[in-house]
Every structure is written in structure tokens, then in C-alpha cells.
Design brief:
With 751 residues, this protein is of the alpha+beta class. 50% of the residues lie in helices and 13% in strands. Keywords: Coiled coil. This is Portal protein.
Length: 751
């Protein structure tokens, strides 16, 4: 099969997917990637391998010390027995190691939490439904309180203390409320980061950003359909030229790997015959142009003890075209029929083409025509509903790339490190000399002494070498007339110890300046007047200078999180059921597997910086203070200590404050009601006492009235008795008078 090649050597893309999946096509792609890099690509990665290794040697203090020996007048090719300088250590001092480790620790110490939220229209409708529901609950708080007092429970496990009471609190509640699916995705991404030890990968990428000016990782699914993250060695990556620091427009990437024959046999899984494996085994760097170029860069990979086989792992993004003929069937309905891409259509049938992006992957054994595992990539990280946005699996960022040229802080400080080591050698040379300065020996004063070194008479060139190394000039001259003849004359030969030490201190300042550090950041000795505020300000300035590295780290991290979310859905859908029960339980895993994958909603990813150690320490102090003042309880403090985000901590504190305010208002109302009830009871008691007093007074009045009545009755009775007595007396007197009258009449009658 023949393919039309464009100017860059890549095969024609306008062929059918079936043709693209053949090994012949994949071999052309692999060779084109390597060829395109060699001919048109910039020296970003593979071409910079030697430079990157040099930078790493300098940063670790492993550069060749022989390059500094001429500063002390020593020829590196001269044997020690012939050298005049003795007692000097030529070891390199690693001035940059501590500073690089501090910068790496700063980047690695800035941790982030991936946040996920659904942003499509259906998710917005669900959130609007939640908002309306919460509004109804807010307006029904009095009813809910009565219901809680009667039934002792609320619907949907609501808490009256946590229920928003105004619009601001409702907005705060909705801001921190997300769909259950988004929460599960966040949890899954966090677990995959832990399983792949992303903290260590983060440190390694930070080291690459400083040393090489670029960091790179890749994501994918392993043979068990479990997401993985790998850090890529930047000196083995092949990427095309790009106008973007994240290489978003790259159509391919390759990675040079060196594997053993057994690994090759295991990876190919029977795709290569024994004869082909022997061809791969016999591959030598001198047998082809590819390995001839790579041998100088990766000499250690071609050791005879363990013969490594170089392979190029690659991915290639291409445009797929599907051609259809639109026909009208006998029922008058349109129907699409698949056609070859060369189909032109006719008057009756319309030609319809659908274009989308696919990614192909494979492994090519360099220097051979052997290719294996070439296929359309499994589990492409397509965005929902958009097949044209299919990214490569590599996540790369070069913060200081300009005009396709990488710039790294490590490369910039090499001249400074050379100067520092040069000054240090000069200081050692001065300290190793027997005199504080130079000295002149006058042979005329000591002409009786034959000057020899190592049983060898000194020639003029030997005297000069002796002077350059031992800083002693041997002369034989007559003294001037009238001058004193001195045997040893002290000389001033320019820059001395103090000046070199000052130069070293100045260069260390330049080193910190280029790296974006300062005395506070590198834990050096500060001035006596440097207070806590000044020190903190210097640390903040250092963080600001390193912001370009923090930004690169954030960009790589968020792209990794996006990929892990998509790959996790693939893993849930096609992997072994129940493998993620440990993350969010059996029920949550089942719900995710059945209903809550990324095809239901569009999600946005963002990252939140986790609190630094200092910020977390301040937060824990605040929590302890709140506990001591009884603002929060011990269980609430324990919950706050587990919070890993300042944003979430702020939300939880606000929630606790609202709950505390509601409980405080509730207690105030209860106190008011209790006081009112007590006052009511007191008033009732007083009223009852007054009533009793009135009743008693009334009874007394009644008794008094009764006594007065009885007294009056007695008076009337006595008066009546008196009247009766008087009437009786009068009647008796009348009777006596009548009797007396009768007697008188009788007497008269008798008379």
C-alpha cells in the first residue's frame, strides 16, 4: 500500500480508518515523527539531552573540577608528582543544591484540591429546583419548628439550625452545593492522585521545570483499566514546534524508551515473531542513523552489561473522515449509506461527510521496521458531545519557552556557579600558600644556596610555573646602590582573600536573584534588624518571583484531573464491578456506574489551593481559641480540624456561626418566655394573695356585720324585753288598778 506523503513526511490523512489502522501506515507515522523532529523540529527535548544533563551536574555539584585547575596554574594533564600545588582540594561545592531543593519544596508544598461542578442546562435546572425548594423551606420555618416539636423529626433530615434564613445565606448555601455526581467525581480523582503518588510526581516535575524549563506527565488506563499517571523524562520527549507553552496545537508526541528484550516480548504480546525479536535484539547504535545520533546523548542506556532496546512510544492525532450517500427510500424517508472517501456523489444522491478527531498510538523499535501495539487509541479522552476535541495523553508545560526555545533557571545559573567555584579555588589557593601574600626571594642575597625542586635544578620556565602555583617569585638581581639587601620581600599581588570572599557573597546574591529566592527563602542568616514582618515580606516576594513555576504546576495538575475524571468513567463502565467500593461505598459505586457518568452532564474543573502549613497552624489556633471560649464544641472542633480547604473551612465556620446565632436567639426567646412565665406566676401568686386578703377582709366585714347585727338584734331584743316588761308592769298596774277599782265598787256595793 502506498501513501501520499506531505512536505513533512507524514502519510496522507484522507484515507479510511481501516487503512490508518494497518501497521504499514503506523510505521510511516512513527518514522515521520522522528524524521520531522530531526529535520524540522527544534532542539527542545532530545536535542537538549546533553545540555540538560550538564545542568543537572552543575546543580548537584558534579561538574568536572579539572576545568578550574588552570586558575591555580595547574595543567589538568599534569600528574600530581609534577604539580607544585599541594594541599588544595579540587572538589566542587554545590552552592545550588540547597536552593534548588528549597524551590522544589515551595512548589511541592503548594497543594491543590480539584473541584468539579456540573455546568450544563440540565444541571442548572436541578440547582434551580434546589434553590426553589430551599426558598419554600425558608418561608416555612415556623411550621417546621412546630412540626419538629410535635413529630421530633424533619423531612429530608433537615436541620433548622443549618437552614438559611435570608438571601445571602441562601446564596452561600447554593455556592457550596453541588450535584452528587460531581462530589463522586471529586472523590474519585482525589483517590487516583493518591494511588499514583502524585505528590512525588509533582516534586519530580518541579525539578524538571527548574532544570530543563519544562515538565511533562501522561495519563492513561493500564491493562486492568485503572487510571495511571506517569512522569516523562523531558530529555526523551519528541514534540513539534508550538506557539503555546502547553503545546495545545501539537498533533503528535513521542517518547524514547529503553527496554529489555523480555519487556519487549511482554509488551508486544505475540505481535512480533521470534525472528523479529532477534532483529530487535541485535540492534546496535552504529547500525543506523537513529541510534548513531542517540548514542551520544544516552550512552549509559547502551551499556554492554544490559543491552537495552530503544523504542519510540508515540501518539498521533489525525482527522477521520466518514463519507455517506444520502438516498431517499421507497417510503420517501432519507437514509444514509456508508461510502468510500473517494465517493463524489451524483445528481440523485447527496454526499455527506462527517469529520472528527482520533488519536492513534503505537511503539516503534528504532532502526527497524518493527512496530507493535499500533491501533486507534483505546479510551480517548473526548469531551462530551464534541468528538473534534480529543486531546493527547501528554500534559506538558514550558513556562519560559520563547520562539520555540526553552529557557530554564538551571541553565541561567551555570555561569554564576562557574564563577563561584573559580573564586572558591582561588581562596583555597591563597590559604594553601605559606605566605599571606606573595614573596620575592633574592638569589643574590642567597647565592650560596642552590635552588632546586625535587632534585631538579629550576629553569626559567620552572621558576615561572613555581611562581604561578606557589606565589613565590625567585630572582637573582643586584641591589640598588644605597638600598638594603633583603632576602625575602613581601609582594602585593592584587585580589586577596577578603576580596574573593566578598565576590563569593556577591555571586551568591546573584544566584538567589536569578532563581527568584532571597536570604529569608533560602534559610540564610538575616540581618540583625530583620524582624518577623520583614522576613514574612521577603518570603512573599520570593513566592511572587517563583509564580511562573507555580502557574506551570497548576496547569499540569488541572489537566491531569480532567483526564482522570474521564478515565475514571471508562474504568467504572468497562472495568471490574465493585473495584471502587472502597472509595465511595457499594451504593455510591452502583449509582455512579448506572446513572452518574460524565455523559449525563457537562462538568467544569477548577482547583483550590490547600492551606499552607502556616495558614493551617493559624487556623488550628483559631479553632482552639474558639473551643476555649466555648464558641464551638469539641466535636465541632474535631470536624474543623479535618477540613482540608480554607474555602470549606470558611463555609463551615459560617454555618456554625449561623447555628450558634440561631441557638442563641432561641435561648434568648426561651429566657424571655421563662421570665414572662415567672412574672405571670408571680403576678398570679400576688393576685391570689390579694384575693385571699380581700376574702379575709370580706369575711371580717361579714363577721363584724354579723356581730353588729347580733348586737343590734340583742339591743332590739333587750329593748323589746324592756318594752314587754314595761307593758307587763303597766298591765299589772292596770290589773291592780282594776282590781282595786273592782274592790272599791264591791265595797261600795256592799256598802
Amino acid at each position: 500500500m502506498s501513501y501520499t506523503e506531505d512536505a513533512t513526511g507524514f502519510p496522507d490523512e484522507l484515507v479510511s480508518p481501516e487503512d490508518k489502522e494497518t501497521k504499514e501506515y503506523g510505521l510511516k507515522v512513527a518514522k515521520a515523527i522522528f524524521y520531522h523532529h530531526e529535520k524540522y523540529g527544534s532542539e527542545l527535548f532530545v536535542g537538549r539531552a546533553r545540555k540538560i544533563n550538564e545542568v543537572r551536574d552543575y546543580l548537584l555539584g558534579r561538574q568536572d573540577p579539572d576545568q578550574y585547575k588552570p586558575l591555580a596554574g595547574v595543567d589538568p594533564q599534569t600528574s600530581d608528582a609534577e604539580a607544585f600545588v599541594q594541599g588544595i582540594r579540587w572538589d566542587v561545592i554545590a552552592y545550588a543544591t540547597k536552593r534548588i531543593n528549597i524551590a522544589v519544596s515551595k512548589i511541592a508544598g503548594m497543594k491543590y484540591k480539584a473541584t468539579c461542578d456540573a455546568v450544563d442546562e440540565s444541571a442548572s435546572e436541578l440547582k434551580a429546583e434546589i434553590r426553589d425548594k430551599m426558598k419554600i423551606l425558608m418561608e416555612s420555618q415556623e411550621f417546621l419548628q412546630e412540626l419538629a416539636s410535635i413529630e421530633e423529626y424533619l423531612p429530608e433530615d433537615l436541620s433548622l439550625e443549618d437552614l438559611p434564613s435570608d438571601k445571602d445565606q441562601l446564596q452561600d448555601y447554593l455556592t457550596h452545593t453541588k450535584l452528587f455526581a460531581a462530589s463522586l467525581i471529586e472523590t474519585a480523582v482525589e483517590e487516583h492522585l493518591k494511588d499514583n503518588d502524585y505528590d512525588q510526581l509533582k516534586r519530580e516535575c518541579a525539578q524538571d521545570l527548574i532544570e530543563a524549563g519544562i515538565g511533562a506527565v501522561r495519563t492513561g488506563l493500564d491493562e486492568n483499566i485503572i487510571p495511571f499517571i506517569d512522569r516523562l523524562e523531558v530529555d526523551k520527549i519528541i514534540l513539534p514546534q508550538s506557539n503555546y507553552p502547553d503545546f495545545r496545537d501539537a498533533k503528535y508526541w513521542g517518547y524514547l524508551d529503553f527496554i529489555s528484550l523480555s519487556d519487549l516480548e511482554k509488551e508486544s504480546q505475540g505481535q512480533l515473531t521470534k525472528e523479529q525479536l532477534e532483529i530487535a535484539k541485535d540492534t546496535r547504535e552504529e547500525q543506523n542513523i537513529y541510534l548513531g545520533k542517540l548514542g551520544g546523548y544516552y550512552r549509559s542506556e547502551f551499556e554492554e552489561t544490559v543491552r537495552s532496546i530503544p523504542v519510540l512510544r508515540f501518539e498521533w492525532k489525525t482527522t477521520e473522515v466518514e463519507t455517506y450517500a444520502k438516498k431517499i427510500n421507497e417510503f420517501g424517508n432519507p437514509k444514509l449509506y456508508r461510502k468510500k472517501n473517494t465517493y463524489r456523489g451524483n445528481g440523485k444522491n447527496d454526499k455527506i461527510q462527517h469529520k472528527y478527531t482520533s488519536v492513534y498510538e503505537g511503539c516503534w523499535v528504532l532502526g527497524t521496521d518493527l512496530i507493535y501495539n499500533y491501533r486507534r487509541k483505546h479510551f480517548m479522552e473526548r469531551k462530551r458531545g464534541n468528538m473534534n476535541e480529543t486531546p493527547l495523553s501528554i500534559k506538558v508545560y514550558a513556562p519560559l519557552m520563547r520562539n520555540n526555545t526553552l529557557v530554564s533557571a538551571g541553565e541561567q545559573i551555570i555561569p554564576i556557579l562557574d564563577d563561584l567555584q573559580s573564586y572558591n579555588i582561588k581562596v583555597r589557593h591563597i590559604l594553601a600558600s605559606p605566605f599571606p601574600n606573595g614573596a620575592e626571594i633574592n638569589l643574590h642575597a642567597l647565592k650560596a644556596v642552590a635552588f632546586e625542586w625535587g632534585n631538579k635544578k629550576m629553569e626559567p620556565k620552572d621558576l615561572l610555573s613555581f611562581m604561578f602555583q606557589k606565589k613565590i617569585l625567585v630572582t637573582d638581581r643586584q641591589p640598588l646602590q644605597g638600598s638594603n639587601d633583603q632576602a625575602v620581600v613581601e609582594l602585593n599581588q592584587g585580589i586577596q582573600l577578603q576580596e574573593y570572599l566578598a565576590l563569593i557573597a556577591n555571586k551568591l546574591g546573584e544566584l538567589d536573584e536569578v532563581l527568584g529566592l532571597n536570604a529569608a527563602a533560602v534559610a540564610s542568616q538575616l540581618g540583625e534588624r530583620a524582624g518577623a514582618t520583614t522576613t514574612q515580606l521577603q518570603i512573599q516576594q520570593s513566592d511572587l518571583a517563583l509564580d511562573y513555576l507555580f502557574y506551570a504546576d497548576r496547569k499540569i495538575f488541572i489537566e491531569v484531573c480532567k483526564s482522570l475524571a474521564i478515565l475514571h468513567c471508562y474504568s467504572e463502565k468497562y472495568g471490574k464491578p465493585g473495584r471502587y467500593n472502597r472509595i465511595y461505598g457499594k451504593i455510591g459505586s452502583q449509582m455512579f456506574r448506572e446513572n452518574l457518568d460524565l455523559t449525563k452532564h457537562d462538568y467544569s474543573f477548577d482547583i483550590e489551593p490547600l492551606p499552607s502549613d502556616m495558614e493551617r497552624a493559624d487556623f488550628l489556633k483559631t479553632v482552639e481559641l474558639m473551643v476555649s471560649k466555648q464558641v464551638i464544641t469539641g466535636s465541632e472542633a474535631t470536624m474543623l480540624r479535618r477540613v482540608d480547604s480554607l474555602k470549606k473551612a470558611e463555609f463551615e465556620l459560617r454555618r456554625l456561626e449561623r447555628r450558634r446565632d440561631k441557638m442563641s436567639r432561641k435561648r434568648e426567646m426561651e429566657n424571655i418566655e421563662a421570665n414572662a412565665q415567672a412574672q405571670q406566676q408571680s403576678t398570679m401568686v400576688a393576685s391570689q394573695a390579694k384575693q385571699a386578703e380581700l376574702e379575709q377582709a370580706k369575711q371580717l366585714e361579714l363577721i363584724k356585720a354579723e356581730e353588729e347585727r347580733k348586737t343590734e338584734q340583742l339591743k332590739h331584743k333587750n329593748k323589746l324585753e324592756e318594752i314587754r316588761l314595761q307593758e307587763s308592769i303597766k298591765a299589772q298596774a292596770k290589773l291592780e288598778q282594776i282590781e282595786k277599782t273592782n274592790k272599791s265598787i264591791t265595797t261600795n256595793n256592799n256598802n
